[in-house]
Amino acid sequence: MIPSDLAALGLSARFRDQITPQDCLLRPARIAAVHRDRVDALGEDGPLSLTLPPGLMTGAVAVGDWALTDGKVLHRLLDRQSLLTRRAAGKGVDRQLIAANLDRLAIVTSCNGEFNLARLDRYLALAHAGGIAPVIILTRADMTDPAPYLAGAGQAARGAPVLALDSRDPAAAAALAQWCGPGQTLGLVGSSGVGKSTLAGSLTGTQQQTGPIREADARGRHTTSARFLIRTLSGGWLIDTPGMRELGLAGTTAAIGASFDDLDALALTCRFTNCGHDSEPGCAVRAAVRAGSVETDRLQRWRKLIAEDRHTTAKRDKTRSRSFGKAGKATPPGMGRRR
Which of 177, 224, 216 lies closest to 198 in space, CA to CA? Predict the structure, then answer.
């Protein structure tokens, strides 16, 4: 059932203020699913199937976007409050939109061999880059002692909430209700098989397709294959995402700094401003490692993320520069060579 009050769907004053008198014949709707040649949306009067105007590709529209429509055509997108993206899989530098206008991002991992601090760092960087407050959810806490996993995740979270729970337990929905009440949107991200679909089912009261746990690696089989906006039992909205094998970063140096704010602060006190925190004299970061206040593994993860981000950002900028150069060298209309 779709609420008639669009505020419950997430239409805040931030979005209402973007609707002008010239838009009097259009109505706001929220994107619920993106298909190859159209999008599904939720409006005041119910679900809509919208075509896109010329020049707007579905790749530029994200689940969770707010749009103005006449009921048949999406006329324009409203400016986003937040946007979760990643570098598209493969060797390219294009950006892939994951979800828009999330209030909180739940990063789901599990209390078993799947737990990986380096992967958590990446998800946290993506959340900070998108302007989304993160929360880390540790599933399968009923199958082992969650204490060491809580400690590791807490170190990476840098103050963000960390919860350990059983995604099959109805209490799991109550634990997350504060982040997906009326007008709020919660995103779920994580690797395949960590219990996201089960958790989504607990939050929404819908039957999610789940696969059994593989004995070889204690992971479930991938079940979620697309992104949808789904109403939660607590009156808010959920966007579940497929498991992502690649979490490429580009242009997220500041976001990485938010996840490693302690190391960023130390780096400011290094003797050299361009310190690589390797073997340079006067390195405050390496001194902290020697003193035992910073773990070597954490330093290595930080350096790896920064190096990757700088490399992909430079590659992206170079690609854009080449594209701009080719466009600038194009022969203007009417200026071709004379015969």
Answer: 224
